[in-house]
């Protein structure tokens, strides 16, 4: 069970990172559950920081 839960949270983080790298707003978070939302926002913040230092996905 823990493996599935961790995979969902990892996926939420990755989706948040992709949203942040592409310039989407954090208001577009598709998750309502606190855990998934927290991981999505963490990925989004990480991507925004990466964009500010010049990293981008093409």
UniProtKB/TrEMBL annotation:
Keywords: Cytoplasm, Translation regulation. Its main location: cytoplasm. It is found in: Cytoplasm. It holds the Pfam family RMF. The keyword Signal does not apply. Belongs to the ribosome modulation factor family. This is Ribosome modulation factor.
């Amino acid at each position: 069970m823990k493996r599935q839960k961790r995979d969902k949270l990892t996926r939420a983080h990755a989706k948040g990172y992709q949203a942040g790298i592409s310039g989407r707003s954090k208001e577009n978070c598709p998750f309502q559950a606190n855990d998934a939302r927290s991981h999505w926002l963490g990925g989004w913040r990480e991507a925004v920081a990466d964009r500010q230092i010049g990293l981008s996905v093409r």
